[in-house]
Structure formats: structure tokens, C-alpha cells
């Protein structure tokens, strides 16, 4: 594992990144900082949806929501598996949020655009949510595709079938791709498939397990690089690649 706080050293580049021709980015808390706290809105709307759908109080709805997230990868996956929920209404409801807390980041867009090859968003969220967020960031133009939970037939990361369906749909050669994620366990399968992995490390926001989940397993071999500054990391890649031998 190579830990980089805000950039990347030239020594790290020759081993992994020159071969990369496809750059795959998770969406939430990866392309924008967790401090935007968009998920607080999604979180509340999930609780409200479950409370109404299962006719339980908010405390029980939240317990179900978090248990499913931990056990099934996403709350939606648990609801579909256990209760047979139809996913479209759920996705529309929980992603009907205000994204204005996300600030435009032209420099991030420039750093991604400067990478050679394809740039893709791969998210457990919906296409509409991804489009809203990257539009708010002002970086929609740099991506050649968005693959959401519908494109994986509702198989969420970190399940292997989610990545297999993503790779099949996108035509990506995994050994020539890099994956950027804020949840460390979501990098296990990409590592196994031969992708270069970068954990975009978030702060731990609380003590409950669902708060700690993004950090669990982060010390494993499946995490190749760690950064707390995605834009700085990508800008460092560009500098290192341009530097003379």
C-alpha cells in the first residue's frame, strides 16, 4: 500500500499507472468530499421510505436500513432480497435530494480530463442521482459513461457479480483500469480482477459500524494506494508522467 496525502510521487507511477486506459470512479464521497453530507439527506429518505413501506416506526426502519447496508452491500439490495421490493420507486424517492452543497470543481474536472483514455462513473446509486451530482460539480463533460445500480441488474458493489456485469457492459479490460473508491471493501474484487485500486479515504463520521464500514479492511493488499485528496492525487499523476526520466 502506498499512502499519499495530497499527491503522488514519481516513483509510484511506472509500476501501475502508465498502463491504465480506463479510469473508474465511484460517485458519492469520492468525486465530492464527505463534508457535503449529501448522504444525510438520502439516509433520512431511506428511513422514511422503509417506515412507510413496512409500516414500522422510524427507529425500527433505521435499524433495518443499516443492517441491510452492512449485510447486503446496499439497503436496497436487502429490501429486494428480503421483502421483494420493486426498486424504481425506492431509487427515485431516496435520491430526490438537494445537491447544492456540492460545489463546482473545475480543477477536479481538468485533472480527470487530463488522464489518458476513458473516464467512467460506477455507482451503487441511480443514473439520475449521478447525473445530478456530476452536473453540480461541473464535470459531466469529462465522463464517457455512467454505470449505475440498474446497469448491474441491482447487484451492488462489493459483490463480484456487480463488477462482472459492469465489466461486461463497459467492455473494460480490468488489468488496464484503475478504480477509485471511498469504501475500502469495494476494492477487493477490483484487485482480484487485476485493476489498480485507489482508496479515497474518508474521515470516520461516527462510532456505529455503518460509519466505520468504509475503513474496514483498508489495511489489506487489495488497497494499492490511499489518498485523502483525489484532485491532488490526479494532478500528481499528471506531473509525474510529464517529468523527465
Give a structural overview:
This protein is an alpha/beta fold and 245 residues long. The chain has helices spanning 13-16, 38-54, 58-72, 75-83, 87-94, 106-113, 127-137, 160-170, 188-193, 209-212, 230-242; strands at residues 2-4, 22-25, 118-122, 145-147, 177-181, 196-200, 225-227. Strands 1-7-6-5-2-3-4 form a seven-stranded parallel sheet, with helices on one face. Helix 9 (188-193) links the parallel strand 5 (177-181) and strand 6. Helix 3 (58-72) crosses helix 4 (75-83). It starts with a strand and ends with a helix. Mean pLDDT is 90; it is low at 7-14.
Name some characteristics of this structure.
245 residues, alpha/beta, Rossmann fold, DNA polymerase, domain 1, 2 domains, 7 strands, 43% helix, globular
Largest sheet: number of strands, sense, barrel closure: 7 strands, parallel
CATH class of the largest domain: Alpha Beta
Percent of sequence in beta strands: 5-15%
User: Could you say which structural class the secondary elements and strand pairing correspond to?
Assistant: alpha/beta
Total domain units: 2
CATH architecture name of the largest domain: 3-Layer(aba) Sandwich
